[in-house]
Write a structure and sequence with these properties.
Length: 341
């Protein structure tokens, strides 16, 4: 951390100032952006029986991911259930009366979730760290989950009355061991920034997560622009992801939305083409596209990212199952890692 706060690894980044923000919003208003979606965002009723049965399975748990909306994913691996960047509120905002509003309800309500063992928070922006949601999770029946956060956010959680938390620096790992299961969580770099107001920019760290369990390796990018960080990650985890050990990440959760206009967003949010590059840089077996279809944050239509994904995936010669999207509420069961005995 420098005197100017935390910094990215590759290339400088300065959050856009008021003049640039006003320029973006003025151009968007003049151009009627974002256009409305041309097709409904897909949603399905969640398979609650499956998810609760899987959560109780312990070592028999089958790896699975369920898209709840935006960057919130319920992941089950290593006998444990985790949530990424939970936001169940109506708005991604400090206010209940203003700010980006949900276009689709969460795929599950908070009271429908199986017991959540771990919550991963990638950074402190309002669409990724929602006060009402983390407070509700801390009060879940059966005890609060463990919150794993980047440097600087443990104090913020304590201010919300949440004390079961661990904060990590980039490349720092935390072992999560319970009688029902275990995995290891590493905070990894991302090309992004932090801030919940005008006076705290870059004061807390941001990042993604690598979650390594015996039968599944999961990667969650958080919010990020494209950088060489992902090649670094592949190299970092290579000794534990040799072919005989099961290979690369079994599932990567990668953002594919909130990317226009590029002059404003490129340093902080990848577009679909860049998300596909991250998929390949990581050597992931399969990736799930997230961070789209829920909050109207930028200038592209909410339903555009999956259409571009179909085109760009074909151009790269990738099969449909190698980089896919889910309906809100949908679960994808994953094959367990094949490792040597």
């Amino acid at each position: 951390m420098s005197k100017r706060g935390f910094r990215n690894n590759y290339g400088g980044f300065e959050p856009k100032g008021l003049a640039e923000l006003l320029r973006w919003r003025w151009n968007a208003q003049r151009g009627g952006l974002p256009p409305p979606p041309t097709t409904p965002i897909p949603s399905v009723a969640p398979d609650l029986a499956l998810l609760h049965r899987n959560a109780a399975g312990g070592t028999a748990m089958q790896p699975a991911v369920t898209w709840i909306g935006h960057a919130t994913v319920l992941a089950q691996l290593g006998g444990l259930t985790l949530l990424t960047d939970p936001i169940f509120s109506e708005r991604a905002s400090p206010f209940t009366f203003a700010g980006p509003r949900r276009h689709q309800p969460p795929g599950m309500a908070l009271h429908e979730l199986p017991h959540v063992d771990v919550v991963l928070v990638s950074h402190n922006h309002y669409d990724h760290l929602d006060s009402a949601s983390v407070q509700a999770l801390s009060r879940q029946r059966g005890g609060a989950p463990l919150f794993i956060v980047p440097l600087g956010l443990k104090a913020w959680l304590a201010g919300q009355g949440i004390t079961r938390a661990v904060e990590l620096d980039w490349w720092q790992a935390e072992a999560v061991d319970t009688p029902r299961g275990s995995f290891e969580v590493t905070l990894v770099p991302a090309q992004h920034w932090s801030g919940r107001g005008l006076n705290d920019r870059m004061n807390t760290l941001w990042g993604g997560f690598a979650v390594l369990a015996d039968h599944c390796h999961l990667f969650y990018a958080g919010d990020t622009g494209y950088s060489r960080d992902f090649e670094d990650m592949r190299a970092h985890f290579a000794p534990r992801q040799r072919a005989e050990d099961g290979g690369g990440f079994d599932i990567a959760l990668l953002p594919i939305g909130s990317y226009e206009p590029r002059w404003f967003m490129a340093q902080q949010h990848v577009n679909v083409e860049e998300a596909l590059r991250i998929h390949q840089d990581l050597g992931a077996k399969r990736s799930l596209g997230v961070h789209w279809g829920t909050f109207e944050l930028t200038d592209e239509p909410l339903d555009e990212p999956p259409r571009i994904l179909v085109r760009e995936r074909a151009a790269k010669g990738l099969a449909d199952h190698e980089f896919f999207v889910l309906a809100i509420g949908e679960t994808r069961l994953l094959p367990p890692r094949a490792t040597r005995t």
